[in-house]
């Protein structure tokens, strides 16, 4: 008789003993009775032979045969008792049949055909996890790879020696889907040896085998612009693409006769890019910063739009014209440097002396100009962008550092009062009704709604749409007065064109003003084609 038993001998189930003469409740109440019965069973000669046979079978790895182990006692119902209690040292028997009962086992005909239970343990299935990280980018799927190779073969057909730089623009746009003014930078990236040609094989090696094909456009542009071992972009990296933009864009053709202004335009675009995109302000533009910006969209727009002035982000020539002319107006000696006295004249003397002192103390931003007490053109670009659009995050950070006198990360009542005192004095000198600081402070708190009314944090300012007006109250008298009067015409303009920033509106107004002044000057000279060498303002 075969019997499977899974349990501990020290904790026997009274029902398994199958002793009608003894109540199971009595055995459960007296567990030593079961132990005595088990010890007595083990002492029988037949039991010893059966246990020895089981041990030998287990060691040999053969099937465990427990048939014929019946023992006669006074009770005929106890004939199955010996097969219910395996010896302590034996391994577990084969698993029960799926149709068997855990308590009453059926008589089996013949020996068990199951092998050792050690052979029944299932091997763990190893799950194959596909590679999900690739150092140089995910390889292109075969279908995409073949489709791209087919297009590449068409472009390079008949050019066994390769394509020269003048023929590479279409490859950049049609195959790589990049702005056309990236063709020179991409060409030189592939032609690292300077041979002057890009063969089919070298292009396939760089674009497909180098996994550039599967990267998103931001990573592609970042990889093309940066130096091989660098992990960030610097201003110099953008100059090749801007030179090609100036040479090929129809909206900038008129500048080809004035290379000095081509250089200034390229510099201004780069300064604007780093002002808005390089949020760390360290001159090292990372891939993360690039992905969080709108620069790639602006580049694609500039490539598709023939009127460069419609590309308001970064590339507008009108915006460059305004920035350059405003700098030229302040730079009276035209040494391309301005000092405090020059800057105080900005906006018809709109700024206070105290805020100008803070700017020249280089608290909001360290000057790139190495001449002490002077501000260079790049420094002025950062200033004018911050001054004319106080709704942008770079501007809020710029002016917050100026007002935060002790640099502890909060603007207190005393710090605001320090700057407003000069505003109050100027209002009195202009015979205007002064507004007391206590009233101004209540107005500022209502405008910003800071978390703690005893001070204002940068986070509070970024969470309010009126933060720019707070700075104007503190150090720009002209804009403070304009805010108080609430010009309904300007309010209507803002509602009609909500996509325009404060900088866009300012640059548009100033460009019209500067154009009218230029036209009037040309008319007074008797010719619209006269170039005044003393005023080298760009057209």
Question: What does this protein look like?
Answer:
Helix content is 48%, strand content 1%. The longest helix is centred in the last third of the chain and has 23 residues. The protein is an all-alpha fold. Helix 10 crosses helix 13 and helix 13 crosses helix 25. The protein contains 25 helices and two strands. A two-stranded antiparallel sheet has the order 1-2.
Provide key terms for this protein.
mainly alpha, 539 residues, 2 strands
Task: Please summarize what this structure is.
The protein is 48% helix and 1% strand. By secondary structure, it is an all-alpha fold.
Q: How many strands in all?
A: 2
**Bulk shape:** flat
- The value of Rg in angstroms is 43 Å
* Strand arrangement, major sheet: 1-2
Strand content: under 5%
Total helices: the number is 25
Structural class based on helices, strands and sheet pairing: mainly alpha
The average pLDDT score comes to 81
Helix and strand run? HHHHHHHHHHHHHHHHHHEHHEHHHHH
> How much helix is in the residues?
40-55%
Main sheet: strands, sense, barrel = 2 strands, antiparallel
Straight-line distance between termini: 109 Å
Ordered list of secondary-structure elements with their pairings:
Blueprint: H1 24-29, H2 31-42, H3 45-60, H4 142-156, H5 169-174, H6 183-190, H7 200-207, H8 217-225, H9 239-248, H10 259-277, H11 287-291, H12 295-304, H13 317-330, H14 340-343, H15 346-349, H16 353-360, H17 377-388, H18 393-403, E1 410-412, H19 413-429, H20 437-448, E2 455-457, H21 458-462, H22 467-475, H23 477-485, H24 488-496, H25 502-524
Helix pairs in contact: 9-10, 10-13, 10-17, 13-25, 22-23
């Amino acid at each position: 008789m075969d019997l499977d038993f899974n349990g501990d001998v020290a904790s026997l189930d009274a029902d398994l003993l199958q002793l009608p003469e003894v109540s199971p409740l009595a055995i459960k109440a007296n567990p030593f009775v079961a132990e005595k019965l088990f010890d007595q069973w083990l002492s029988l000669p037949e039991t010893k032979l059966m246990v020895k046979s089981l041990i030998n079978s287990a060691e040999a790895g053969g099937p465990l045969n427990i048939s014929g182990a019946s023992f006669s006692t006074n009770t005929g119902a106890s004939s199955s008792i010996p097969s219910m209690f395996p010896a302590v040292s034996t391994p577990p028997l084969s698993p029960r049949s799926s149709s068997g009962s855990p308590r009453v086992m059926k008589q089996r005909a013949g020996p068990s055909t199951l092998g050792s239970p050690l052979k029944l343990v299932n091997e763990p299935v190893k799950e194959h996890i596909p590679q999900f990280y690739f150092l140089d980018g995910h390889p292109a799927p075969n279908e995409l790879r073949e489709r791209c190779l087919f297009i590449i073969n068409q472009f390079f057909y008949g050019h066994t020696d390769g394509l020269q730089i003048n023929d590479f623009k279409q490859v950049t746009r049609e195959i790589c889907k990049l702005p056309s003014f990236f063709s020179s930078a991409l060409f030189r990236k592939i032609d690292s040896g300077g041979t002057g040609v890009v063969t089919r094989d070298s292009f396939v090696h760089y674009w497909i085998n180098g996994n550039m094909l599967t990267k998103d456009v931001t990573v592609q542009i970042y990889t093309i612009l940066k130096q091989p071992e660098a992990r960030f972009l610097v201003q110099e990296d953008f100059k090749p693409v801007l030179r090609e933009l100036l040479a090929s864009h129809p909206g900038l053709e008129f500048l080809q006769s004035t290379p000095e202004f081509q250089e200034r335009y390229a510099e201004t675009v780069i300064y604007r890019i780093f002002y808005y995109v390089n949020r760390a302000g360290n001159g090292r533009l990372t891939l993360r910063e690039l992905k969080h910006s709108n620069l790639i969209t602006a580049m694609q727009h500039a490539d598709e739009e023939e009127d460069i002035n419609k590309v308001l982000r970064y590339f507008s020539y009108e915006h460059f014209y305004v920035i350059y002319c405003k700098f030229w107006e302040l730079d009276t000696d035209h040494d391309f440097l301005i000092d405090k006295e020059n800057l105080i004249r900005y906006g018809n003397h709109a700024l206070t002396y105290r805020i100008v002192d803070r700017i020249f103390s280089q608290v909001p931003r360290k000057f790139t100009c190495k001449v002490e007490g002077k501000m260079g053109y790049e420094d002025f670009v950062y200033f004018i962008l911050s001054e004319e659009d106080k709704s942008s995050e770079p501007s809020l950070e710029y002016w917050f550092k100026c007002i935060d006198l002790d640099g502890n990360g909060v603007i207190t009542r005393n710090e605001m009062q320090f700057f407003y005192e000069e505003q109050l004095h100027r209002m009195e000198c202009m015979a205007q009704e002064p507004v007391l600081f206590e009233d101004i402070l209540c107005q500022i708190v209502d405008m910003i709604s800071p978390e703690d009314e005893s001070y204002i944090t940068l986070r509070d300012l970024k969470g309010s749409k009126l933060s720019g007006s707070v700075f104007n109250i503190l150090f720009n008298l002209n804009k403070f007065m304009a805010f108080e009067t609430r010009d309904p015409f300007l309010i209507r303009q803002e509602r009609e064109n909500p996509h325009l920033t404060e900088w866009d509106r300012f640059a548009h107004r100033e460009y019209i003003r500067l154009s009218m002044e230029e036209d009037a000057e040309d008319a007074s000279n008797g010719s619209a084609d006269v170039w005044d060498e003393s005023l080298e303002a760009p057209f």
